[in-house]
Amino acid sequence: MTRVYMDHNATTPLAEAVADRMSAVLREEFGNPSSVHHFGQRAKAAVDEARSAVADLIGADPSEVVFTSSGTESDNFAIRGAAEALEPGGRRHLISSGIEHEAVLNTLKSLARRGWQTTLLPVGASGLVTAEALAAALTDQTAVVSIMHANNEIGTVQPVAELARLAKARGAVVHTDAVQTAGKIPVNVKGLGVDLLSLSAHKFYGPKGVGAIWVRRGLRLLPFMTGGKQERGRRAGTENVAGIVGMGVAARLAVGHMAEEGSRLAALRDGLERRILAAVPGTAVNGDPGTRVPSTTNISFDRVEAESLLIALDLEGIAVSTGSACSSGTLEPSHVLKAMGLPAHRTQNSIRFSLGAANTEAEVDRVVGVLPVVVDKLRNLTRTPVRG
Questions:
Q1: Which CATH number does the domain housing residue 344 bear?
Q2: Which domain holds residue 49?
Q3: pLDDT digit string (tens) for 122-133?
């Protein structure tokens, strides 16, 4: 069976050039980057080269890039580190949105248990955070505002630059989770006007287990791991040299291919979406189709349980998702779609298709050919009318 992979927001396959470079580093660059001898300095040079590549991807200075183990760690570091640095001054209020990744939402919950005030901004059916909602929530005690650049389930790109201007005018530190945009669409930290930005290598054809956080020069951020002086004293622990190098190669590839690949994926995605809506009754796109990353569509299938559809498609060799990979295995409604105010049935019957480098028109044909049959079979099990 030929399999079709349309779950690139969960993870991407390792690019061949990334795998080749990592393999060489694993064999040859075994030194500790903190060591002053020849072997250590070779490893350090490899890490520094990758740091420059990641900085170029987001329009930053290499000295502002801190390597981490994941996007989740980067989110935690940004929010906890900035919040705790501002705490002595009396700022104990945190703002985010109801559609953030669990790495942000659960970090806020953890800080709330320690006495921090938290506010989750509404988004409405478009999935967009408005400037008006943020302005109404900001106070002189607001320490950190964390709004994701693009949502992992629906792909909606937020007006981060506008929101950052409002927040910084009130003295708040601004973080954006750019895990779903870095390497896919242009991301420039200066243009966004943020103080902190998180990214993850495995979302743009790099390895799992490595991420980064951009920290604006001069911003005080308390490290939440104690130990040695690695990463300029900001993130203790011996660096994952091979993973970091792989992230650097992936970043270089993304810079070179982003514009062309983005246009190709947007056309492929739009064709897939249009044909699904035409071929399968009772379907609707979730989120704002005009402001999203080019690879993502989230479609609800009336009177079909999302997990059942996912499994049925997998049996046909088609890999898709019900939303965040970090929430898979649960039968809970999507917290993103709930926050958008969608009807209960739509929060549980929606599938995310996220396209990537290997996807083709022939694969879109295959998905569109299989879907109507699979959906019809599942609906016949319930024998109730299709809504709308």
A1: 3.90.1150.10
A2: 16-253
A3: 998 999 999 999
Active site residue 250: no
Burial (0-12, 13-18, 19+ Cβ within 10 Å), 331: exposed
* Measured distance CA(91)–CA(46) in Å, rounded: 40
Q: Is there a single domain that holds both residue 237 and residue 303? A: no
> Cβ-count burial of 102 within 10 angstroms (0-12 exposed, 13-18 middle, 19+ buried)?
middle
Q: Could you read off the pLDDT of 259-290 as tens digits, one per residue?
A: 999 999 999 999 999 999 999 999 999 998 88
The pLDDT value recorded for residue 382 is: 74
Same domain assignment for residues 148 and 89: yes
The reported pLDDT for the residue numbered 46 is: 98
Task: Identify the domain boundary among 231, 253, 275.
Answer: 253
Name the token pair of 87. Answer: 């705490």
Instruction: Give the per-residue pLDDT at 385.
Output: 57
Among candidate residues 219, 285, 326, 378, the one labeled active-site is 326
Whether residue 309 sits in one domain with residue 222: no
From start to end of the chain, where are the E strands? 4-5, 65-68, 93-97, 117-121, 142-146, 173-177, 196-200, 211-215, 283-285, 296-301, 318-319, 350-354
Number of domains in the chain: 2
Give residue-wise pLDDT tens across range 152-185.
999 999 999 999 999 999 999 999 999 999 999 9
Domain end marker among 222, 253, 284: 253
Whole-model pTM: value is 0.94
Residues 284 and 243 in one domain: no
In sequence order, what are the residues at sequence separation of 6 or more whose Cβ sits closer than 8 angstroms to the Cβ of residue 17? 249, 253
Token look-up 């992936």 returns 250
